[in-house]
Write a structure and sequence with these properties.
heterodimer; A: 614 residues; 4-stranded antiparallel beta sheet; 16 helices; globular; B: 153 residues; two-stranded antiparallel sheet; 3 helices; 10% helix; binds flavin-adenine dinucleotide; binds iron/sulfur cluster
């Protein structure tokens, strides 16, 4: 400890602590203030909320908007859409809840100054597709952050939250969180009556396609470090559908978005010979998944499946036919601005390789898998549903409260609710926050009790990697190879390789089986032991260490869930080679896990699915 | 395209350090200017490029798949409310785009505490802030418990 004698411990008390100031966290912060006028509301963020999270570079579309004012869609329609896309399995109670509120969120965004495009003829929002509306969203995140800053009592930027704190007097109740300031190295102890986790999804769990300088060009942001899962998992919150990782079909190398291309520009895909290929694989897919292949729209994973089969048959790459559409200057502008608004890297790739989609039909690829809860996928924490209609098996407390008392979540954090995207994540943050205010009001003056011994112990654990480095560094002349420590990047690359090769990444064409998963878990176990020997040269590397730790915890969960579900529910996302077919008789259910940090055991169980009856 | 900083333009103000979501723009202690300490953790999100008052930051496409000779430049002007882009291909072709970024003055968003305090009745309802008005429909939709049934669809 002598090395860090100047380090301070800072105590911050609050009523509501929001962890992660992304879309969900900003929504939660805003709504907390609306309902909790006198409450102390603190938002803590590892970067700077002005440009943090998956929306840091902006977005060109809001992908979840009903348009109830024009009778375009009703919340039920969105539930059926999400259910269909996820092969029958979503928390319909939670999904409906987001859908019924999301329009109000979007109208607020417009009032705050987000430029939403309008259809010149109808005056309505310009639709990109049935659910998507088009925006000029370069400043989407700064606008949303401004609303959150106005609402918060305090925003702490550049604090990496590493652990949640539990109440010392009440089992299974959260009492706060700890973390460290990435600039000063001060240790922060946050005590709170309610905690809302909005810490985003997970990239860099599986080995990315680019492993050199371009390894940061993942589809989901490289700073999406699985904290949203690791923080609750560590304190025993139940997770759901963690096997449901997502693979994205995107433009090659830059992972530029395809939504506007398909939906608005009406471009389409073909194989290398210029042929339509999806129908070639219809019977094959039907044999695996039955009539899910006949549903409309065709589920995202099954469209991936057709691409994977066609490429394996030697007729790849799949290309997007853009040459026709791009003759229209308006469409050309939309095509490029779509990248500049949310994936600038794709514009760079095309400029560098002289790819002008007016003249060349660009290649597509399937990405490495990601773990998240807000896109065409629904991994995350198991949460209580809305009070007014959720079935009793889905209701044990306050809306969006996890299975730990006082611990709430939203956005990528919460499982079972696919297709919420940016607007739905913000909305879910609002839903969680109103419930958290109720929870705090109901507690009245009861203060959370944190144990001094617990956070002091955590302080040692949090900074240990810097000690490891300081001590071990003297053993060697120079360089990155030490017999006593690993650098965070070494651990990350090991993690990615294990997940890639054993848990269904790109190098096995997303294939795994029981033996591989068990072997993967063994190797993850050794990596976990090695985490005690990570050496962090400075505070930045200390942040990387804890990001790695969170990714590792989430990876265990993904592997356990994948092992538990003995079927291939989402071909195109991953395959259980030993159970290649979808099995509705046994697996039309959610998978739940609970980690016990004292024994190190993972308990798995099934939970029922409830559907809205037509 | 990880970022890099032009030596002659950077004055070490630190805006890029403050904004980078990946925490990889740092000030070099010898030169007192910024640089990218971890290019392989750069998302090419351009947050630093847009924030640099000296236009000192540029991107060079990732070496493992982007041939040299291209450039994608951004100019974000808050007062004008626009962002302008210039894309230059390796073969010299150029494309320019301009988009609006915001329709209201910066700082103009009202705190939720500036609205009338909600009633206890509202607190107990399922409505969120500003609802039902902000929904632009009369009433918040809801399901009834009997509409959700266990089973296979
Ligand atoms: C390329 C791309 C394109 C997309 N396109 C669209 C689109 O067109 N339309 C649409 O609606 N949506 C789109 N999305 C999805 C949308 O961005 C996400 O659904 C949404 O951002 C999820 O919100 P969130 O709050 O859960 O996570 P995020 O917005 O990622 O926020 C998570 C926050 O937590 C912080 N954090 C993480 N760990 C910690 C920690 N340990 N301590 C403190 N803070 C932490 C992060 O820094 C971040 O600020 C896209 C996403 C990507 C990446
Ligand atoms: S913002 Fe620009 S001028 Fe300021 S430190 Fe960064 S690169 Fe230098
Ligand atoms: S482009 Fe984004 S990730 Fe890269 S250095 Fe700049 S702010 Fe950081």
């Amino acid at each position: 400890m002598g090395l860090f004698s100047r380090r301070k411990t800072v105590h911050v008390d609050s009523d509501i602590l929001v962890i992660g100031g992304g879309m969900a966290g900003c929504g939660a912060t805003y709504e907390s203030r609306y309902w909790g006028r006198d409450l102390k509301i603190v938002c803590v963020e590892k970067a700077n909320i002005e440009r943090s999270g998956a929306v840091a570079q902006g977005l060109y579309a809001i992908n979840c908007y009903m348009g109830m004012q024009w009778d375009e869609n009703q919340p039920e329609d969105h539930v059926r859409y999400a259910r269909n896309d996820l092969m029958g399995l979503v928390r319909e109670d939670l999904g409906y809840d987001i859908a019924r509120h999301v329009d109000a969120t979007v109208h607020k965004f417009e009032e705050w100054g987000l430029p939403i495009m309008r259809d010149p003829e109808t005056g309505r929002y310009q639709r990109e597709g049935k659910w998507q509306i088009m925006i000029h969203g370069e400043s989407y995140k700064p606008i949303v952050a401004e609303a959150a800053r106005k609402a918060a009592t305090e925003v702490y930027n550049r604090i990496m939250v590493t652990h949640l704190l539990m109440d010392k007097t009440k089992a299974n109740r959260v009492a706060g969180a700890v973390g460290f300031n990435v600039r000063t190295g001060d240790f922060y102890v946050f005590r709170a009556k309610a905690v809302i986790v909005g810490a985003g999804g997970a990239s860099h769990i599986f080995k990315p396609r680019a492993v050199g300088e371009g390894m940061g060009r993942t589809w989901y942001a490289p700073w999406s470090s699985a904290s949203a899962y690791a923080l609750p998992i560590e304190v025993g919150a139940k997770m759901t559908q963690m096997e449901n990782r997502i693979v994205l079909t995107r433009f090659k190398d830059g992972y530029g978005p395809v939504g506007a291309y398909f939906l608005h520009l009406k471009t389409y895909t073909e194989n290398v010979n210029g042929e339509e290929y999806e129908s070639t694989w219809y019977e094959d897919t039907k044999a695996l998944v039955g009539d899910y292949i006949d549903r409309h729209p065709v589920p995202t994973c099954l469209r991936n499946h057709a691409i994977l089969k066609e490429v394996a048959a030697g007729r790849g790459p799949i290309r997007m036919v853009t040459k026709e559409a791009f003759q229209d200057p308006h469409k050309e502008t939309v095509g490029w601005e779509n990248f500049l608004g949310m994936t600038i890297g794709q514009a760079v790739v095309w400029a560098s390789q002289n790819i002008d989609p007016k003249e060349i039909n660009p290649e597509l690829t399937t990405s490495e898998p990601y773990v998240m809860g807000s896109h065409a996928t629904c991994s995350g924490a198991w949460a209580s549903g809305p009070e007014d209609y959720a079935p009793s098996e889905y209701q044990w407390g306050y809306n969006r409260m996890m299975t730990v008392d006082g611990l709430f979540g939203a956005g990528d954090t919460i499982g079972g609710t696919a297709h919420k995207f940016s607007s739905g994540s913000f909305t879910e943050g609002r839903i969680a926050a109103k419930a958290a205010v109720k929870y705090v009001n109901d507690l009245s003056s009861e203060q959370p009790q944190v144990s001094e011994a617990e956070y002091q112990n955590l302080e040692e654990i949090v900074f240990q990697p810097m000690e490891n480095y300081q001590v071990g560094r003297n053993e060697i002349v120079a360089g990155t190879v030490s017999p006593s420590y690993l650098l965070p990047i070494h651990g990350l690359q090991r993690l990615e390789k294990i997940m890639d090769e054993y848990v269904g990444g790109i190098s096995t064409n997303y294939m795994t089986n029981e033996w591989s998963l068990k072997r993967g878990l063994e190797l993850l176990g050794m990596l976990k032991e090695d985490m005690k020997n990570i050496g962090a040269e400075d505070l930045h590397q200390l942040q990387r260490t804890w990001e790695l730790d969170h990714r590792l915890t989430a990876s265990f969960s993904v592997a356990h869930h994948t092992l538990f579900r003995e079927e291939t529910r989402w071909p195109g996302y991953y395959y259980r080679g030993d159970h290649m077919k979808l099995d509705d008789d046994n697996w039309h259910c959610f998978t739940l896990s609970r980690y016990d940090r004292h024994s190190g055991d993972w308990e798995m169980e099934k939970a029922p699915v409830y559907h809205i009856v037509d | 395209m990880p970022t890099f900083v032009y030596m002659t333009r950077c004055d070490g103000c630190g805006h890029c350090v403050d904004i980078c979501p990946s925490d990889i723009m740092h000030i070099d202690t010898t030169y007192r200017r910024a640089y990218n300490i971890e290019p392989n953790m750069c998302w090419e999100c351009y947050s630093c490029v847009k924030a640099c008052p000296q236009n000192a930051i540029d991107c060079r496409g990732y070496a493992d798949f982007a041939p040299l000779g291209h450039s994608v430049r951004a100019l974000r002007e808050e007062e004008k409310g626009t962002i302008s882009w210039k894309i230059k291909f390796r073969d010299g072709r150029e494309k320019d785009f301009v988009s609006p970024i915001r329709t209201t003055p910066w700082g103009s968003i009202k705190s939720p505490a500036d609205y009338a305090a909600p009633s206890q009745e509202a607190m107990e309802s399922q409505e969120l802030a500003h609802e039902p008005d902000a929904l632009h429909i009369d009433m918040l939709p809801a399901l009834t418990p009997d509409q959700l049934k266990k089973g296979v669809v």
